[in-house]
Every structure is written in C-alpha cells, then in structure tokens.
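Review form for a predicted model. The reviewer records the input and the model, then writes brief findings.
Reviewer: anonymous (R2)
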Amino acid sequence: MAQHAERRRRPLRAGRALLAVPIGWIVAVFLVDIFAPPDIHLGPLLVAAPAITPSIGGPRAVGFVAALAVIAQTLVGVLRDPDELLSANHEAQIVALALVGVCLVVFCVLRERRARELEQVRYVSEAVQRVVLPPLPRRLGPLRAASLYLAAEAEAQIGGDLYAAARTESGTRVIIGDVRGKGVSAVSDAALLLGAFHAAARHRASLDELVAYLDESVSWGLPDSDGPGESFITATVLDIPDRHDRVQMVSCGHPPPVVLRDGRPLTVDAASPAPPLGLGGLSRPRYHTDSFRFVPGDLLLLYTDGVTEARDASRAFYPLAERVTGWTEDDPDSFIDRFRDDLLRYVGGHLDDDAAMIAIGYAATPGA
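Model under review:
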C-alpha cells in the first residue's frame, strides 16, 4: 500500500509546480489585453489555461484555474470599458469560459474516478498473484529455479497461465499449465488446479497417478456451462529426483520442455501425450510417463504457448529454440532476465497472450 500511496504523491507534487504554467498564461493574456489597442481582443485566449490544466492537475486545480480565467476576463471587460460595466461581447465570453471550466471539472472528476478504479484493479491483481501464483522458490533442494509471468492485459497481472513446484522426500515435482480462456474464470480455474497439485504432489503416488488425480479434480471443478469438453487445462507435470539424472514427465497437451545443454536446445517431445486436464472423462486415457536426461550444467525450460505463439511485426512466431541457441547462462535468474528482454524486444513490447516460463538448473555445489 505504501508503494501505491507514493505513486500517487509524486504526480501530485509535480502538478502543483506545473500550475505556474496556466496561471502565468492568464496573467500574460490579461496584461497584454489591458494594454492592447481597443480593436484587439485577446480574452478568448484565456480558455487555453483551464484547457491544459487537466494534464497537470485534478478537479480542484482545474476549477481554480477556470475561476481565475473568469475573473481575468471580467476585469478585462471592466477595465477596457470603464463607461459600461460589461459589453454583451464580454458577457458572452465570460459565460462561455465558465461553461468550459465546468465541463473540464466534470471531466476531471470522471477521469479520477476511473483512475482510482484501475489502481484498485492493479492492486487486487497483484494481491491475487501473490496468493495464487507466487514466484517459485529460488532453491528447491539441489535445484535452482526462476519463474516469469508476463500478462498480456495492462490492468491485470495474472491470467490463466500457471506453475508451481513442491518438494517430496526424494525430489521435486513441477507443474506448468495453461487454462483455456481468459479473465476471472481463467484465474479461478488456475487456482483450482494449483490447489489440487499442492494437495497431492507430496504424496508417494507415482507421476501417472498424480496426473490422474489432477484430471479428476479439474473435471469435477471446472464449469460445464460451455458444454462437455469446452473447459480444460493443458499441462506438463514433471518429477525431478534429487539423486538421479532422469526426469519423469507426463504431458497433457502442453508445449514440450526444452533442455539447454552447452548452448544447444534439446526439445523433449512426449511419446504419447495425454489429453488436456479436464478431458480425461471423455476418453479415459492411460497416462504415459516419459523420461529424459537432465544433469548439472543443463537448464530445463518450461513455458506456455504464449511464448511460442508470440509474434513480431511481420506476424512470425517467436522461434524459441532458435533464439536461445548459444545462450550459455547456467543461472536460472540470469537466463530469465535475458529471455524476458529478448521476448519483449521481439514482439515490440506487447504480448497478445499471457506468457509464463520456468528455468531450472542444478546448484553448483550442495547448499550453494
């Protein structure tokens, strides 16, 4: 909350200093108009002062500047026509200036209300992200890990992409997934799967039994308002033992992991991928467990399709394997930082879909 309050105070202090610009404009127009020849009238230029104030201040500042402009216009009329209090022309200009000021104040009130709503949305989304999708721990037994979440929507920092890790007696289990759909319902579905994963991942069940449990939980929990088979979650679930160099994997319609070894990316395709979670009741699949080699010095990359389906200005997809070829970072944090910069540069700074990635490697020495 302190950070949000500080962000609000900074533009407030800057806006107060910039109020000198419209006030100075009113003073300048007033003085020039007073001493100008009788056939020259500069009063209409006063409207510029309240017109630019919304860009540097709120409703009170706009009202204050508009009132000063009305007073200045009134004084100009009185001083230039001492024999007549106000001419019809000056009266019309004063009324028009007052109406413009009122309209600008109303606009600023509505703008600030909208800004407060967006600020609250950002704050809530940050809180939801910390609860539902916190960053992975930097250490998972002998492993080091780093995670990245990039939301496509500017006002929301979390969507349907998900990831989690859980320590077991013999290793680390990791899940990464992507909920069909977007918005609040996608966040709810992601929370459902993550809750089921954390509840069951530490059990001694085999990986295929864990995935079967997740599929059953998702099938019962996902809404069926769109009809059977319309709600599902693609996912990859892995078991990384502490004392072996073989990782077990069950893929449920999710993009394949990539192992980066000596700067060369090795894509790990599943031999028999299962349907996405939530569709198991339609086909009753038998979950096949694949395995692949993962040793110290390697980096394991898990990601969602928001990464590989990101497009550049020519609408070409982000070529993940090609882009990371030659990268020699063995530290997950360094890799994630470089990857984020490269992906955002490739798409021109804006993603069309949420994207998530996990980088996992072995610690250089035990306890490091």
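Findings: The CA atoms of residues 175 and 237 lie 4 Å apart.
Further findings: The radius of gyration is 31 Å.
Recommendation: see findings above.
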